[in-house]
Amino acid sequence: MAKEFNVPPVVFPSGGNPGSVPQQRRVPTAPFQPPRPANPNLPFMSFDIGSAPPPTSFSAPVFGATGVGIGSNFEDEPPLLEELGINTRQIWRKTVSILNPFRVNANLHEDADLSGPFIFLMGFGLFQLLAGKIHFGVILGWVTFASLFLYVVFNMLAGRNGNLDLYRCLSLLGYCMLPIVIFSALSLFIPQGGVVAFSMAAVFVLWSTRVCTRLLVELASCGDEHRGLIAYACFLIYTLFSLLVIF
What we know:
mainly alpha, transmembrane helix
């Protein structure tokens, strides 16, 4: 049995397409203008972009020649090593003075530094690494302990008149490690534990002991009368480092 449905009639707008939507005309609005201040003396900036005239020319920014900005001059800047306090010429002169144990110029070592000793210690550890021994931590630890030991011994012997500070003691001890570094390099070509190795170790230990003792006595006053005891302390220190090379 069929049912009948009442469908309302469809009415289309007059003068248009059934599928078209009537468009509304947009009314132009005025540009935004902020409220003007009550005081006429205050400056006022207009935000009306359309009323501003377009720019006719563009000028690039000009940097002054006062060393600020892109045009700064780096020719007057000191070298990086000089800013870090590393004097390569002074390190080379000190190294050459250590190579001659009979004519050591103590005046070159008045200005203590740790750049040269650090290079020698790293070279010593590198030669030990080439021999199959990893002793970087041992070397740095022994140098620190040896510097404290030599500092205490010297100041106890000199008494109140001793003027050896720990920084200079560490610098002298590190520079006098150069013969031990040379021995460590030569030990790569000789059998370890033999008579030749012990003989060479004795020569290089005496070399380091003589140079370090002379520098300590000449740079730090009131140590000449205790030269033998200072030499004995230096001999023990460098013998300890030579044993790292032999064994």
